[in-house]
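User: Show me a protein chain along with its predicted structure.
Assistant: Here is one chain, sequence first, then structure tokens.
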Amino acid sequence: MSAMKARRRPRRPAGVVLGACVALLLAACATGTPDPTVSTAAPTLEPNKAAVAEPELPAVWPLTGEAGEIVNRPALAVKIENTAVARPQSGLNQADVVWETIVEFEVSRLVAVFQSEVPDEIGPIRSVRPMDTAITSPLNGLLAFSGGQPGILAMVAASPVQALSHDSGVDGMYRLKSRSAPHNVYATPTTLWSQADAEHQNGPDQQFSFARSAEQASAVVAGAPATRLDFRLSGQSSPAWEWNGEVWQRWEGSTPATDAADDTQVHADNVVSIVAAHPNTEFGAQNGAPVPTYTLVGTGTGTLATGGKTVDVTWQKDSESAPMKLFLADGTEATLAPGNTWVELVPAETGSLTVS
């Protein structure tokens, strides 16, 4: 034949091929060389990209820090008399905040602020004083009183509050026949609230800062134990507060202070002492007696009492319409326990607080 046949390669026995494959695999394992036919990649996991949800904190009342079903109504500040003939007053235990001030003749007078609770009746109500605008302006709410001197009334009119005066014939104020004038002007709060104008419909901003629980309040966490607070605000006013294991209870000297609305002792979850200058103003009272005020714009020292403990604080108020803030020694803002608060304005020149 002229064409030559192609040669075939001799076929290797199957056993020889299998043995060679096994040998290659063993060699690869021995040398650490990965087998390209075997996948060694780790499984791919999709990262969880969803953001962690922030815990929803319950809404709280701005003046007490207490949780509840919040009602949007303005703060109602009421001037309450605190002479012996005016006691017992009605409604104090339902106030969110009560400020105690010293007016002419060294007499104590109160500014009781209501927002989270609605008393049936409040009183006895008396006239305004120069320090009232610095106390109430940050609330941008209502200020109820029985009258006042023209110059002081002008201060109220120039402030952010809405004035509700008995002398102007406001609805909701009346005189009780069971008490003698001028210690007998009382009011129905719901009627006062119903007269809020368009600029005073909303609730106030938070004033003091509150912890989420009494156990987290600044005085409880960092304060010193205390069972009694003895104030000397003037020659005519020496209130005291005693810790009964649950609340601070108020005393007028050696007499328990009571609320006529429920016949219980006046009490507070927080007692704040604010030391401030107490100068006289150009206003005069009977027989030419000077009408004092407090210098509340600026800074000063104070004491915060909560949960049977006290801690020193520094207070700061940047303007008349700014809320008063409390700070601890390290510069952080002090927190109060949720609940009601009494603020004792201690005259820097003559007042004092003794803690025991």
